[in-house]
Amino acid sequence: MDLTELKTAVEEAELVDAHAHNIVAADSTIPFISCFSEATGDALSYAPHSLSFKRNLKDVAELYGSEKTLHGVEEHRRLAGLQAISLACFTAARISVILIDDGLRFDKKLDIDWHKNFAPVVGRILRIEYLAEEILNEVSGTTFALNCPVDRLGHWICSPKIEFLIDCATVGNKIFGLKSIAAYRSGLEINTNVTREDAEEGLADVLRAAQPVRISNKSFIDFIFTRSLEVALLFDLPMQIHTGFGDKDLDMRLSNPLHLRDVLEDKRFSKCHIVLLHASYPFSKEASYLASIYPQVYLDFGLAVPKLSVHGMISSVKELLELAPIKKVMFSTDGYAFPETFYLGAKKAREVVFSVLRDACTDGDLSVPEAIEAAKDIFSQNAIQFYKINYAVKSSGSNNYVALDFTKVNSNDSENDVSLVRVMWGDTSGQQRCRVVPKKRFNDVVIKNGIGLTYASMGMTSLVDGPADETNLTGVGEIRLMPDLSTKRKIPWVEQEEMVLADMHLKPGEAWEYCPREALRRVSKILKDDFNLDMNAGFENEFFLLKGILRDGKEELVPFDSTPYCSASAYDSASYLFHEIVPALHSLNITVEQLHAEAGKGQFEMALGHTACMHAADNLIYTREVIRAIARKHGLLATFMPKYALDDIGSGAHVHLSLWQNGTNVFTASGGSSQHGMSKIGEEFMAGVLHHLPAILAFIAPIPNSYDRIQPNTWSGAYKCWGKENREAPLRTACPPGIQAGLVSNFEIKSFDGCANPHLGLAAILAGGIDGLRNHLRLPEPVDTNPSGLGAEVERLPKSLSESLEALKEDNLFADLLGENLLVAIKGVRKAEIDYYSKNKDAYKQLIYRY
């Protein structure tokens, strides 16, 4: 029997990983040895003596080409960095969809958005006990919690909160299912008819316990479990249930899935879709039996692979398939904390599934085509249908195995087609520059050693390719441009090229203090460490499209059209461009929310989805590249210059900002009343930004031409004030559709423009916000009218780059948070810009070619 086709199908299949957890930062306190074992404490010291440890360590070392010792692998991880090892692991694993349960309280866990760098589709699984504990931790000890009837509080915990999250799925991480870890707390013998009185006593017991809340009362767990099943039915969401083995705090006797019989027999839940996790090991036969007799029961074998021996893994999966229909069995990695767990889970799953299907063919249970179809179902098709993942699959090649359709998303798997790689960076003046290297050299040399670049590169101005005098940067000294592999993308507008953003290092592994991405990373870490907050950002890109004409024998650039704001004919005339631009951005995993014609002649605006601030800044650089390149392809010039024509309106890069904590938008007010619809945290952060805004302008409006745009009565924010939905204020709180009346979800800064380096701009804004949080600053009353009519009541923002530079010199905050040397370079570049354009009045006209 020739099994070559089956082996190829299994080895090359793209995977849908329907049960995983967050990866942690490189400096997390979680020991790397935990990658190989569920043990903790003293028991972890015995992990290196297990069969699974020895096998898995060997596999990881071979992937990295490192010494086959724990120290050798750890040293490779340290030198390569988290981005590089993550890319290596996910590329080797060929995982295309990841569903993440973010309810584990890992030290320095990375948000769900971070994982989108390594898989085209990343979604969220909502752990109900974690959600309930988060809510109870917010209200525990309050009058509301102590007096609220349990039925009301429990329903509030489950239904409305989940409903809100699902309604917001289009602006956050889409929820694909719920999950319960009742097995870890009180066991799976769920009382679906728990009485109101018992549940009330259970809730009271939970609220009386020590902080932070950890729900362990059986009556209350049973209550929120059944309520969550009701919510799952309401929203047609599946429910994952932990079964079988796990951490030592689990009573394995209570994790046998047979205890779920009352739930499965309850007619209220007969239409629920339930998946039993971890192959229910060591109760795999019991799980297989349940899946065979209950139509609502499905199986997942994550964690059973690869934590067992080879024999144990194969036996467990065979037991699942003894009775359970193949259409009900799904792969997952249960990857957590370390990217290696995803790689190992995928690698071992392929080996085990091939072994099981090979034996089924040899024994006559399956034909080879049936086994190939089974591999397709187990690795992707079953999960896509079960979780309703809107993702197409197609046959690929001569083999009938599954291959996900990458026509709508970026894929870096066509490595053999790439011949050149653009290594890109943004400088102090906001220009985007690149070096180009052949792909082989990129792989062999650049990934490890980077590309040499002069110190002077961060001292250049908008029109002079040399270091400005007062930057303290010269042509003496060299840094290394180190590609951040998580940003590597196939270029959608040309063939056989990739692009990647670079960090600036003094030597590989040692960040250079002038690096804009490192500056944003550094200030973001302060916000996270000091306040457990993350800032999300979403940019609105305004730009002009210009076309060349001949006038009196000379070429002249004129607007693409002359139609008004939101003109249907303007969009129609340019739609052929946007039919290329929007798919190109989507292929780079950049969300486009909407676009329209702006009020300027030939001007358009494109709004991007919000995401973590580092990703938002990276996305903005790529967005500018895409728009300019596709316009150029069609003989047009796209410019993001703030005021390309002094007699027309200007272009900005308005940025919308929000604060997040554990996946929840905490800029928005929650509970009780709020005068302005924002939380105390949100108000203090925004007050800090407003207080420091005159100095922040030197970062986000970085050239003299920027101030030709920031003028009264032009919706650009010329006065130091804020307002609720006031587009004449530089800071505007916003209440987009879907947000409760009276609340706000974010605030907009209108001063940001297309000449700003987005990483430096967001870093400066973060610094101002951090100062507001540290000093509990308060906002003044909002301005609800055009501030230009208020006279001396409201302060004018800097009218020129000279004035904003002076404000920056007088503001000590930024040297402390961004670094003195970087600040000196920024001031030096800004001063040189002022001097140059004051002497060359028409020089600004050349900036359309640079921005």
Automatic annotation (TrEMBL):
Pfam families: Amidohydro_2, Gln-synt_C. SMART domains: Gln-synt_C (SM01230). This is GS catalytic domain-containing protein. Residues 516-851 form the GS catalytic domain. Belongs to the glutamine synthetase family. GO terms for molecular function: glutamine synthetase activity; hydrolase activity. InterPro entries: Amidohydro-rel, Gln_synt_N_sf, Gln_synth/guanido_kin_cat_dom, Gln_synth_cat_dom, Metal_Hydrolase. It comes from Malus domestica (Apple). GO terms for biological process: glutamine biosynthetic process.
